[in-house]
Amino acid sequence: MGSPYNQLADVKMLLFFTEIGIVGIIVLAVLVIGSLFVEGLWCRYLCPYGAMLGLVSWASPMKIRRDVHTCIDCDRCTKACPSRLPVASKLQIISPECMGCLKCENVCPIKDCITMAPTPKTKVNGRQFALVVAGIFLAFVITAKVAGVWNTKLADEEYRYHFSQRDNPAYSHPGR
Ligand code: SF4
Ligand code: SF4
Description:
By secondary structure, this protein is mostly helical. About 50% of the residues lie in helices and about 5% in strands.
């Protein structure tokens, strides 16, 4: 994180798009055109962050759960799932592809038939789940602010110096 490259990581990301090369253009074009034919081409099959988040989702105690006693088998949840998971035929969804969007819960006509909960007996509705997620996020932000690690310690002058050196080979990616 302290490498010259990382001092300018945000600028490098911007330059990737403003000074994009032919390989970048070809890759983006392939992704855009491919996405017209394959839904979620990047997010579902290629995104490395998606794979990482999928592992978190898979390991999470919070799962989409279906109450078979109240379910009327209308199949709306399965049709609404953007990850094409068979929600209507499962007791719970254990899949790295579940992103917790709660679309299945939103379309379900039966109250509390689908819940995002740690156990089958716990009822957590979408609003409560969203509040918990927002609370965890805020807790991280507040902790980082209190610990003094939220804002960069890089002074403006230092940043300008790094920026003027952006084409210097010492500022290329550490892996190169
Ligand atoms: S929460 Fe979203 S991704 Fe997960 S099963 Fe429901 S609709 Fe599919
Ligand atoms: S939408 Fe609700 S009622 Fe319909 S199949 Fe899915 S869980 Fe059952």
